[in-house]
Design a protein that fits this description.
Strand order of the largest sheet: 1-2-3-6
Strand content: 15-25%
Number of strands: 8
Number of domains: 2
Number of helices: 8
Radius of gyration: 27 Å
Length: about 270
């Protein structure tokens, strides 16, 4: 089993949707590759985030009908039951023919994804489609891929927080906005997390900067959500003592690579 297959199984495990064979394959792969456990955490965190962020609602009857319709489309497998030919006549003497032996299915032991388990492209498609249909009721813009695959910025933040040399610094603005810089020299990554950033006009954006001495170095742009929250990865290498700043620039970022306004956020890292 490769790591990508394991990541898929980790999602199924978090959703409690694996067959017995795939659950066994998942557990065996995890035991043999403990360094893959971050996929387990990512999947569990994504599912937990969904549960925590959506108020329980009573789904309309159409959702239930849609789910059962999709389930009915899945191939049904019969185990240990002999199927009579459709052309058999009602007066045929089956007792005289004796009992037809049924070959028991042999269980295949494998660390890969079991084809017989049905956890293949069709099952994934059906699960994803059904899951997406339910999600539309609560927060329509969210996609299944976002739920099971955290954004790169969130992955970077987790990597920093788990590093032995992780550091952070915060600042609180007069309007209550909180901005926290996270960085780790060993990972080479830095992330700014904001809460309460004011919304900007459509033709404006927030731009990140490393300020090294008197020199500002562009580090990417970001857009906070409706609550002013954002988790933004700074592009480029952070040096010890850099100041992390945020300015308001034209959409797309500063046209000449230098700040056009005074910084609205300044976080000292030294």
């Amino acid at each position: 089993m490769n790591e990508r297959d394991f990541a898929d199984l980790a999602v199924g495990h978090a959703l409690n949707a694996l067959s017995e064979a795939d659950e066994r394959a998942y557990q065996e792969a995890l035991a043999g590759n403990p360094h893959w456990d971050h996929h387990v955490r990512d999947a569990a965190d994504a599912v937990a985030a969904i549960s925590a962020s959506v108020e329980p609602v009573e789904p309309p009857p159409s959702v239930r009908a849609s789910l059962f319709a999709r389930i009915s489309e899945l191939p049904q497998e019969s185990v240990g039951v002999a199927t009579l030919p459709a052309s058999s006549s009602a007066d045929e003497d089956y007792a005289a023919a004796g009992v037809t032996p049924i070959e028991p299915e042999r269980e295949t032991s494998s660390t890969g994804v079991s084809a017989a388990s049905g956890w293949g492209p069709r099952r994934w498609f059906t699960l994803a489609a059904s899951f997406a249909a339910v999600l539309v009721l609560g927060f329509g813009a969210v996609t299944v891929s976002q739920l099971v695959s955290p954004p790169a910025s969130v992955v970077a933040l987790r990597s920093i927080e788990q590093a032995p040399d992780a550091q952070s610094a915060s600042t609180t603005l007069p309007d209550g906005t909180v901005a926290t810089a996270h960085w780790s020299p060993s990972t080479g990554q830095s992330v700014l997390v904001t809460d309460g950033m004011p919304a900007l006009a459509a033709d404006k954006t927030y731009e990140l900067w490393f300020v090294r001495g008197d020199t500002p170095i562009a580090a990417g742009t970001f857009e906070p959500d409706e609550a002013g929250k954002a988790t933004a990865v700074l592009q480029g290498e952070m040096h010890a003592g850099d100041v992390i700043a945020v300015t308001i620039e034209p959409a797309g970022g500063s046209p000449d690579g230098t700040p056009s306004t005074a910084p609205v956020v300044v976080v000292a890292t030294a």
